[in-house]
Design a protein that fits this description.
Blueprint: H1 2-28, H2 44-50, E1 56-60, H3 63-79, E2 85-89, H4 92-99, E3 107-110, H5 116-126, E4 130-134, H6 140-148, E5 153-158, H7 164-170, H8 172-179, E6 184-187, H9 190-198, E7 206-208, H10 213-216, H11 221-231, E8 236-242, H12 246-260, E9 265-270, H13 276-285, E10 290-292, E11 302-305, E12 308-313, E13 321-323, H14 330-336, E14 339-342, H15 355-359, E15 364-366, H16 374-382, E16 387-388, H17 392-404, H18 406-422, H19 426-442
Parallel strand pairs: 1-2, 1-4, 2-3, 4-5, 5-6, 6-7, 8-9, 8-14, 9-13, 10-13, 14-15, 15-16
Antiparallel strand pairs: 11-12
Helix pairs in contact: 3-4, 3-19, 5-6, 11-14
């Protein structure tokens, strides 16, 4: 009865959210040509590729989780070169990132909708030897169908957010059956592990590994050089992965910073590039010119046409703000920043990844809302490796202080890099256990 109710409710929710999905598709583009994947209906060439040999199905919802999955794939391939993957993702941005992670023999698909028929067709097509889900990807019909077929299931880098934990616990009668389908759950922290057990997971199947994301971050020197050529000389204040409202905060702080540090440049990289037009409007309202990365011209600046700004590259003007509205360049930006603020932490809940700037030795600031990275933040704060501020006023004070005190900047950046380096190695250990588990099943 409960699964009938779930399927009815899921169908209602999906239909209610369909207009927003279609609008997002129109804005982002990318996966309309593969819409059949959502229903477990794949093109003939994809079916042929899937039938070429057994593979592990690994699923990651979007950009951050794709990076986690990609690191795990590389580690498993290094230990067993015969491993092949079917890689599924949810978003078009995740798809674009995943394309760069595939090796010959791997296949990229969109994950099926969690309806029984879609799931059955997808499993029939892929015929995976195992399924690996990342972080909090709990799709009941998909998981239960795989379990019924005897396919081993693993959840890696598992976490339960502060917001989700009470709901999981209240609905233990529902989630418990799903969580007990997993052969092994690799949790980010002891708290995440306890929350999963409270939600009904088998305690014997849950192991605490630490966060995969300490291993995922990798510096990209060639991208750093490319971005430095685009921005030019001078120290950089970076607003990384900002959400609505946070770009305006960075602009207000930058206006004040320029009074004492006129050579500093501000770079804003919004989390969702389709919001770049709104960010550019905020930049112009704040009185700055805007240099958009998507224009493709280093140091380019929009010209005025009939008294208005256009996006045509022209001559750079005084104190431009650089808007990085392209994907796949965040790590390069962190590598050249003097000070970085990590978004979705001041005006929005959850936070984006603060490990990346810390690995680069960049003094890193976040707002009060970092629940998506709770174990990571606990480690970094304990090492005095990151600055967490409660509001815009405190963020401004810390930014000004750091630019006034290069020695403090250097010391904070060094502590950040050391804290990340000490916690690496999680992915290799999990890859070993996953492969060992699969070998035991073959015997």
């Amino acid at each position: 009865m409960k699964w009938f109710a779930y399927n009815v409710l899921f169908g209602i929710v999906y239909m209610a959210m369909l207009p927003s999905f279609l609008l997002r598709m129109k804005r982002r583009g990318g996966y309309r040509a593969r819409m059949g994947d959502r229903f477990g209906r794949y093109p003939a060439d994809v079916i042929a590729a899937l039938r070429a040999g057994p593979r592990i199905w690994i699923h990651a919802v979007s950009v951050g989780e794709v990076a986690v999955a990609g690191q795990l794939m590389r580690a498993m391939r290094a230990k067993d070169p015969s491993v092949r993957f079917a890689f599924s993702t949810t978003s078009s941005t995740g798809w674009r990132q995943a394309e760069g992670l595939l090796e010959p023999g791997d296949t990229l698909i969109y994950n099926p909708l969690d309806f029984g028929g879609c799931v059955r067709r997808a499993l029939d097509a892929v015929e995976p030897r195992a399924i690996i889900l990342t972080e909090s990807e709990i799709w009941p019909n998909f998981i239960r169908a795989a379990k019924r077929r005897g396919i081993p299931l693993f959840l890696v880098n598992a976490r339960v957010s502060d917001r989700s934990a009470p709901r999981y616990r209240r609905l233990r009668w529902f989630f418990g059956e799903v969580l007990r389908c997993f052969s092994r759950i690799f949790a980010q922290s002891g708290l995440d592990a306890q929350r999963l057990v409270d939600a009904g997971a088998d305690s014997a199947a849950v192991v605490v590994t630490g966060s995969f994301k300490f291993d995922v971050a990798k510096r990209n020197p060639s991208k750093e050089n490319e971005l430095r050529a685009w921005i030019g000389d001078g120290e950089i204040l970076l607003g990384g992965s900002t959400w609505p409202g946070e770009d305006a905060v960075m602009l207000r702080i930058y206006s004040e910073l320029l009074r004492s540090h006129p050579g500093v440049k501000l770079v804003i990289a919004p989390r969702h590039f389709e919001k770049a037009d709104a960010v550019e409007a905020n930049i112009r309202r704040a009185g700055f010119e805007c240099v958009r990365r998507s224009n493709g011209s280093p140091g380019a600046e929009p010209k005025r046409v009939d008294g208005r700004e256009s996006s045509t590259p022209g001559v750079r003007r005084q104190a431009p703000v650089f808007l990085c509205d392209t994907t796949g360049e965040m790590m390069g930006l962190f590598g050249i920043a003097a000070v970085a603020f990590v978004g979705k932490s001041l005006c929005e809940h959850g936070s984006q990844n603060m490990i990346e700037p810390c690995l680069c030795g960049v003094p890193t600031l976040v707002g009060p809302y970092t629940e998506n990275f709770r174990p990571v933040m606990s480690d970094l704060l304990a090492s005095d490796a990151i600055l967490q501020v409660p509001d815009e006023k405190s963020l401004k004070q810390e930014v000004l202080r750091l630019f006034d005190d290069p020695a403090a900047r250097t010391a904070l950046g060094a502590r950040a890099r050391e804290a990340v380096e000490r916690r690496r190695g999680v992915v290799d250990r999990c890859a070993d256990e996953l492969l060992a588990s699969l070998r035991r099943r073959v015997r």
